[in-house]
Amino acid sequence: MRGLTKIGLGVTAALGSAAAWADYSWNFPTPVTPIAHETLKVHNLFMLIISVIFLAVLAIMLYSMWKHRKREGHQASDFVKPNSRKQWAWVMVPFAALLFIDYVVFGIPAYHAILMYEDTKTDADMVVKVTGSQWLWEYEYPEEGIKFTSRLVTPREQVMNIDPKGEHYLLEVDNPMVLPVGKKIRFITTSNDVIHSWWVPAFGVKRDAVPGFLREFWATIDTPGIYRGQCAELCGKEHAFMPVVVHAVSEEEYRQWVASKKSGQAQLAVSADQVWTMDDLMKTGADVYAKNCAACHQQDGKGLPPAFPPIAGAAIAKSTFLDAEGRMVKGGHLDTVMNGRSGTAMRSFKDELSDVDIAAVVTYQRNAFGNSAGDLVQPSAVKSLR
After folding, report:
1. In the predicted model, is pLDDT for residue 23 greater than 60?
2. How many domains does the chain divide into?
3. Whose CA is closest to 384, among 278, 264, 271, 272?
4. Max CA-CA distance within the chain?
5. Are the C-beta atoms of 340 and 232 separated by less than 8 Å?
6. Which residue from 15, 28, 69, 83 lies 20 to 30 Å from 249 (Cα-Cα)?
């Protein structure tokens, strides 16, 4: 008995702790858009009605099994179809009730939610383009002239169980999307490679990003905060590492963020015209490689042949990237990074990385992992080749 008592106290303590219960959710995340509010309302109504139906049917079934058990002398019925008005009523009334629940009780609110999701009757206050890539998100604000990528920053040491998991494990990014509250936002989704799916539970939205197509949805965020989501479509080996993080802020904070982003982009453009040293390029290139290349070519540069060839080795160090006249060599190292390679998993990074990032990562790859090309690529050269 003492052993059982100790076990019982241990289970009670574990279940009673806040840390244990924090991992369990009995409902949707707190809704912060009209669509999410409507979805939660329909969900709760649905759960209430089906719970009542389930308990009623279960009670009737158990009563019938007990009341008409064989031990009491009851014989199996030869009933095969309704033969009286009363029997037909028992068949048709529940059928009509289910139709009413499905098409009226649930159907009307669901239709209303769809109208909000596809609300094109009035103009949007702003537009955001969301592009999925293996394995990151690219966000573009056309009216503001802002474009940037958002990648996972959870350390690989946590993924490999070397370090303890962080509070927002696999839900941390370097550049979160920032949106103002109270504005009607038109989201446009597409993809650069395979099908992805942009999903933020608190927004009540999930839209596939399909290559070659532009798909849209509409939402208005009513509560400031940080909202997290994920890619919800299996898109390759790093599918689990495509988080979505949105910062919903006041309009004033949003304007400050836009100004800061524009200033950062201007500074980045200026830095592309500067002359960089090998050490600076190698330091920046190591960071760019870790964020963009390591998922396929691995941290040690050995790759995962044949899909993802190695960076380490003499072949890449011997390859050229510019000819004698300063033109990019077709199929060379720089061309491959900027424009990708058709028929392979190597995609183009020209629109994802800055001039500095491309120059740095090419320089890093040519002089790391045992490679010793000894040359470097200046950001100004990349800028002139765009």
Report:
1. no
2. 3
3. 272
4. 102
5. no
6. 28
